[in-house]
Amino acid sequence: MNDPLAFPWALICSVPDKNSIPSLREFTLWLTRILQEKAVQYGCSHRFDKEPKAVYYTTPGNEKEVRTTYSIVHSDHPEVIVVFHILPAPNSNEYKLMKELADEYDLIRQGILLENAMTYFEECDIKEVLGNMLQWFNRRISQLVALEKKACTKFSLQIGERGKHATNIISFPMSNVTAAVEKVLHGKDHDISQNVNVKASVEVFGYPASFNEFEIANIFNNFRVIKVVKNLNDGAVVEFVNEFHAVQAAVEYDRSWIDSVHLLAVTPIHPEIIKEVERALRDEHISCQSPVLLLFKKANLCKR
Fold first, then answer.
1. Are residues 142 and 73 in the same domain?
2. Could you tell me if residue 185 is inside a domain?
3. What is the CATH number of the domain that holds 31?
4. How many domains does the chain fold into?
């Protein structure tokens, strides 16, 4: 069964012996399984695909190959969130490139020394290793959501009324700070849909309360998500690349369980899109007879 919350991942092996790739792949499968088990114990929500989206080899010391590989991951597998990189030695050039390129392509990176991978961390405190990895994943996700070190973020906090006496803070990771301040202090209650394409958007409820925008978007990893805006009522508005994705996301994910506790509610905002979803759901096989859903068929977006 496909897990919509699992992180898609890739493996890069910068090692002397290309023949060791199968064993390194098996090691990484083991690592993702045990990380997922420990995440539950530590109260994290991190889960991983059962298989890598891709496995790559680069020659140790070859900077061009490393740069090309990360570029290929970005272009050919845009769904990949996590990259596990097997490094040939401590403080290697590959380690520096991994940090640089993961930042450039907004990836969660996890470097592992070849000797530790081959021995499954035999000489290490495995509990400490896994704990450090999970803490790093949490920090990195927060960085990506907050767009730290970028010129600006998705979110801002306005202090004071609009005009010359107002100031904006743009380094906050919370999506609703501005809305909360304006609603509580200024009595403003702007419709959250004003800043999104309503026809291409759905309202989502039922996900874990701890989820941030990054994790909410990852629920819909089969579709192109443009924006996620959490509102003040334990829900979120998710904007897709177009209305066709919004219809299909509502059809596929409404009333679906994302784990043993959380049942999603996914509802379009625009009346026309609501009608299209209702029409699709009336047909047990999603017949694709309506004008909007016919376009799904042409675009191979109508899943059977």
1. yes
2. no
3. 3.40.50.2300
4. 2
- Same structural domain for residues 64 and 140? yes
Chain segment 233-265, per-residue pLDDT in tens = 678 899 999 999 999 999 999 989 988 888 999
What is the per-residue DSSP string for the chain? ---TTSBPEEEEEE-S-GGGHHHHHHHHHHHHHHHHHHHHHTT----B-SS-SEEEEE-TT-HHHHHHHHHHHHHH-TT--EEEEEESSTT-HHHHHHHHHHHHTT-EEEEEEHHHHHHTSTTS-HHHHHHHHHHHHHHHHHHHHHTTTSS--S--EEESSSSTT-EEE-----SSHHHHHHHHHH-----GGGGS-GGGEEEEE-S-TT--HHHHHHHTTTS-EEEEEE-SSSEEEEEESSHHHHHHHHHHHTT-BSSSS-B-EEEESSHHHHHHHHHHHHSTT----SHHHHHHHHTT----
- CATH assignment of the domain containing 264: 3.30.70.330
Do 31 and 95 fall into the same domain? yes
Domain range spanning residue 64?
9-150
Block residue for tokens 């997922």? 36
Mean pLDDT taken over the chain: 80
Domain shared by 137 and 25, yes or no: yes
Q: pTM for this one?
A: 0.54
